[in-house]
Design brief:
mainly alpha; elongated; single chain
C-alpha cells in the first residue's frame, strides 16, 4: 500500500479543517451546491476525456496508485545473478526450468526468449517494445488524473460564476440572500482547489512514481538477460545492473561477487 499518499491526504485535510476551525465554524464551509458542481462536474469531465475501453480502467488506475505492485530492483538483480550463474555453469538451456518458476511474467518471457536461442537484437527489440507499451498504458492513467488537476479549479471558477450570478439576481429583491450566494461563489473556488491539489495531483504523481519503479525493474531485466545471453560473468552482471540503481540504492562492496 502507498502509505505516503494516505498520509498526504490525511495531513492535507487535517490542515484545512484545523485552519477552518481557527477562522470560524466548520459549517460555514459546508455547501452542497458547491460540492456538487466541483466533484460531479470534474468527475464527469474527466470521464469525458476517455474512450469507452479506457473507462473500464479507471478503477485500476486508482488501485495502482494506492496499492502499487511491489518491484524491488535489488531482488531482480539478485535473481538475474543467480540465473547467470546457472547459465555460465550449465548452459542457457539449463535456465528453462528456472524461467518457468519465475514469478514475474516479464522475467519469465525474457529468459525463455534467450533459452530458445533467438537473435539477441530481436530479443532486445521485443523486450524494449514491451516496456514502451507498458509506459503507454501507465501514461494514460497519469494523464487521466492530470485532467482532474486542470478541471478541478475550472469547475471551481464555474461555481463562483454561478454564485455571483445568483447573488446579482437577488441583490435588488432579497438582499438578505446575498450572503448565501456569495458564500457559494467563494467556497466553490476552495473546493476546486482541494479537488485539484489534494485529490488528483497526488494520484497523478503516485502513478508516475509507480511506473518509474516498474520501468526500472523491466530495464534491469532486459540488460541482465542480454548479458546472460552473451555469456558475461555473474559478478560483472551484478556490477553493471547495480549502476542502473540510484546511488543510495546500490549495494555495498561486500555484496559484490555473491553470484559468482
Amino acid at each position: 500500500m502507498n502509505f505516503t499518499i494516505i498520509i498526504g491526504w490525511v495531513g492535507s485535510f487535517a490542515a484545512i479543517v484545523i485552519s477552518i476551525l481557527i477562522a470560524g465554524e466548520l459549517i460555514w464551509f459546508a455547501d452542497p451546491a458547491s460540492l456538487f458542481i466541483v466533484v460531479v462536474g470534474t468527475a464527469f469531465a474527466m470521464i469525458g476525456t476517455l474512450t469507452p475501453s479506457m473507462l473500464k480502467g479507471v478503477g485500476k488506475y486508482m488501485k495502482y496508485a494506492i496499492f502499487p505492485p511491489k518491484f524491488d530492483p535489488k531482488q531482480y538483480i539478485k535473481e538475474l545473478v543467480e540465473y547467470a550463474t546457472i547459465a555460465r555453469s550449465k548452459g542457457l538451456l539449463a535456465l528453462e526450468e528456472s524461467a518457468n518458476q519465475a514469478k514475474d511474467p516479464f522475467m519469465k518471457q525474457a529468459l525463455m526468449l534467450i533459452v530458445d536461442a533467438n537473435d539477441p537484437d530481436k530479443v532486445r527489440e521485443m523486450l524494449e517494445s514491451a516496456v514502451d507499451h507498458t509506459a503507454e498504458r501507465h501514461q494514460k492513467g497519469a494523464d487521466f488524473f492530470a485532467k482532474g488537476v486542470t478541471f478541478g479549479p475550472a469547475f471551481g471558477m464555474m461555481g463562483t460564476v454561478v454564485g455571483l450570478v445568483s447573488m446579482l439576481q437577488v441583490m435588488g429583491d432579497n438582499p438578505e440572500e446575498m450572503g448565501g450566494s456569495m458564500a457559494t461563489a467563494v467556497i466553490t473556488t476552495l473546493y476546486g482547489s482541494i479537488m485539484s491539489n489534494v485529490i488528483c495531483a497526488p494520484l497523478e504523481t503516485a502513478l508516475r512514481h509507480a511506473h518509474g519503479n516498474e520501468e526500472l525493474c523491466m530495464n534491469i531485466i532486459i540488460e541482465g538477460v542480454m548479458a546472460i545471453a552473451s555469456g558475461s560473468n555473474p559478478r560483472f552482471i551484478q556490477e553493471k545492473l547495480e549502476f542502473m540503481l540510484p546511488r543510495t540504492g546500490r549495494g555495498g562492496g561486500d555484496d559484490k561477487g555473491k553470484g559468482k
